[in-house]
Amino acid sequence: MRFVHTADWQLGMTRHFLGGEAQPRYSAARRDAVARLGALCTEVGAEFVVVAGDVFEHNQLDPREVSLSLEAMRAIKIPVFLLPGNHDPLDPASVYTSTLFLAECPPNVTVLDGVHELRPGVQIIGAPWRSKAPTTDLTGDAVADLPADGITRIVVGHGGVDVLDPDPTKPSLIRLDAVEAAVQRGAVHYVALGDKHSRTEVGSTGRVWYSGAPEVTNYDDIEADSGHVLVVDVDEADQTVKVDARRVGQWRFVTLRRIVDTDRDIADLDLNLDGLPDKERTVVRLALTGSLTISDKAVLDACLDRYARLFAALTTWERHTDLVVVPADGEFSDLGIGGFAAAAVDELVGTASASGDGADDARAALALLLRLVDRGTAA
């Protein structure tokens, strides 16, 4: 038996740092990653797909997003099993029980709510969230009393696992001991988990996995291994399991940390940004530290302005950015201006060299002056 394990589609997700047309493209990319599963399933010969929670970003989605998402699932063609997670719980306001979802849900899509018999001898067991704050281990409860009776069982759960969480006492955490006990006694053969957006194997059995999100949702220093789905083989004769990751994501969220003290450092940063592929599907977060002259800061600003137009987004990580800008000796002595203009420049340089009120504004004004001079528009 071969199937695809995926999770955390979070269809309808928005990212605050995406502006203009980048946000609609990102939303479409998340749906496209779902639709592409159809081709992958055909390629590998998968029998079905399990989605381990957070199919939707939340329960109050725009109707168009719900309709487009269901069409993407229809394109997969083989059975698709959806587990409600913490973002889209099976509560009274659930998207899964809405009139729109029920009317347009394609016949190959099933919402997991307990035990589903795929065919004789094979069961898919879902542990859906029914609220945003469950008070028990839902996955542990689902496996607790399962017998080792020769039935091949795939359990689909959502949430953090106690051995990976900094607070292992949370009541909703999945208790790995309970899950592994069900695996070891032969009652469960694979546990498909969602919630963690990076692909992660849990425990020592080789049968408990987070697939990660199929499309990136956060920067690479936080979400190290997203953009995949898992192709899972379970041998129904000897119950052995093989897991193979396939990349389906197309976007990247990249964090770059750089020291910029000289014009050479700025040139190196320019080369790094230029070398990043697929700029329209790449978000860059910069953490820059260093000390620059006003001339070099103007060069840096021009560099970043250019790439901000090329990337889906180019942002500064304020908490990790510390750039000091100080006028260099003689930096404004050869501008070819005199009189009141020269006196004004001297005053700006004095203000920019200090650390009091107005220093940042003075540096910005001097940087603008340099850029205007470079363009030949200053007298």
Automatic annotation (TrEMBL):
Pfam families: Metallophos
Calcineurin-like phosphoesterase domain span: 1-197
Record InterPro entries: Calcineurin-like_PHP, DNA_Repair-Maintenance_Comp, Metallo-depent_PP-like, Mre11_N, UCP033093_metalloPase
Keyword Hydrolase in record: yes
UniProt keyword Nuclease, yes or no: yes
Membrane-spanning residues: none
Keywords of this entry: Exonuclease, Hydrolase, Nuclease
Domain of life: Bacteria
MF term (GO), any: exonuclease activity
Family assignment from sequence similarity: Belongs to the SbcD family.
This protein's name: Nuclease SbcCD subunit D
Organism: Mycolicibacterium llatzerense
